[in-house]
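Bumping with the actual sequence this time:
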Amino acid sequence: MNLVKLPVNNLQAIAIIALVGTLLAVSHHQGYKSAFAKQQAVIDKMEKDKAQALLLSAQNYALELELARAEAKKYEVKAHAVGMALAKKQAEVSRLKTENKRKLKMSLLKTVKMQAAVVLTALAITACSSTSAPSATEIKVVEKAVMPTPPAALMVAPVRPNPPKDGKTATLLEHAAEFGGYVSELENQNQAWRDWVNSQAAVDGSEGTR
C-alpha cells in the first residue's frame, strides 16, 4: 500500500506546484500587461500634451505675426503721412522762394527807376542853369558822390528757423523743410544784392558817358 500511495502523493504535490506556477505565471503576465498599459497611457498623454503645446505655440506665433503686421501697417501709414507733409512743406518753400524773388526784383527795379529819374532831373537842372548865364570860360561842375540807398527788401535779413524741439522723424523733416526755405531766402537776397550792385554800376557808367 505504501508503494502505491507514494506516487499518488507525489503527483498531488507536482499538481499543486504546477498550479501555483501557472497562477504565478498568469499573475506575472497580468502585471506585465497592466504595467505596459500604464506606460502606454503615460506615452499617449505625453504625445497629447506635446501636440497641444505645438498647437498653442503655432497659435501664439500666428498672433504675434498678426500683431507685427498691424504694427508695420501703422508705421507705413505714419511714413506716408510724413512724406505727404514733407512734400507740402517743400511746395510751400518753393512758392515762397518764387514769390520772394519776384518781390525783390520788383523792388530793385523800382529803386533803379527812381534813382535814374533823380539823376536825369539833376542833369536837366544843371543844363538849364548853365544855359541861363553863358560865359566864355568853361565851368566844370563836379557832383559830389552820393551813396545810393539800397532797396528796403535787401536790408531785411531772413529769419533763421528755431532748432527742432525733439528728435522725432516728423519734427526733423519739418525743420529740414523750414531750414531749406531759409537757405533759399538767403540765396535770393544774395543774388538781389549782386543784381542791385550791377545796376548801380550800369547807371554810373551811363552818367560817365554823358
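The C-alpha cells above came from a reply further down the thread. Residues 73 and 79 are 10 Å apart (CA to CA).
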